[in-house]
Specification:
Length: 168
C-alpha cells in the first residue's frame, strides 16, 4: 500500500515537473517572439527614417518625395492594426525609386542607397527570425497538452503580419 502511494506521489511530482518544464519552454518561445518583434520593429523604424532622408534629398523629384514622405510618416505613426498596410505602402514606394538602375535618381547619394540595401537585408533576416519564432510558439501551443492544462496562461497567440511577406 505504501509503495503504491509513493509511486503515485512520484508520478504526480514527475508530471508536475514535466508540465512546469513545458510551460517554461513556451515562455521562452514567447519571449523570443517578443524580442524578435522588437528588433524587427526597430529596423522598420530605421527604414522609415532612411526613407525620409531619401525623400528630403535634393536629387528626388517633388512628386516622388511627397509620396515617399507620406508613406514613411504613415509607417512610423501607424498603430498595430494599420501597421501592415503602412509597411506595404512604404515598401512599394521604395520599390518605385529603386526599381532599376535607370530610375534611381542620379544625384541620390550612394551612401543612402547602400544603407537602404543593407537595412533591407537585415529586415529580411529579422522577418525570417520572427516568422520562425512565431511558428515555433504556435506549433507548441497547438498541442493537446498545452490546451488541456492551459500552459500558455493568458498570453496572446503570437501572430505574423501580412507585410512580412511583401517587405523588400
Amino acid at each position: 500500500m505504501v509503495e503504491i502511494i509513493v509511486s503515485i506521489i512520484f508520478f504526480l511530482l514527475l508530471a508536475g515537473w514535466y508540465l512546469s518544464f513545458l510551460a517554461s519552454r513556451l515562455d521562452v518561445l514567447h519571449h523570443r517572439v517578443e524580442t524578435s518583434w522588437a528588433h524587427l520593429d526597430a529596423q522598420l523604424q530605421r527604414r522609415a527614417a532612411l526613407a525620409l532622408e531619401i525623400a528630403n534629398s535634393k536629387a528626388v523629384d517633388p512628386a516622388t518625395s511627397l509620396v515617399l514622405t507620406a508613406a514613411a510618416y504613415q509607417a512610423r505613426e501607424a498603430n498595430i492594426v494599420q501597421r501592415s498596410d503602412a509597411e506595404i505602402a512604404l515598401s512599394q514606394s521604395l520599390r518605385l525609386i529603386l526599381a532599376d538602375e535607370v530610375s534611381v535618381p542620379s544625384g541620390l547619394e550612394v551612401e543612402l542607397i547602400n544603407s537602404l540595401n543593407a537595412l533591407s537585408e537585415k529586415i529580411s533576416v529579422g522577418i525570417t527570425i520572427h516568422t520562425e519564432a512565431v511558428q515555433s510558439a504556435q506549433s507548441l501551443r497547438s498541442k493537446l497538452l498545452f490546451k488541456i492544462f492551459r500552459l500558455a496562461g493568458h498570453a496572446p497567440l503570437p501572430m505574423r503580419y501580412s507585410f512580412e511577406d511583401d517587405i523588400l
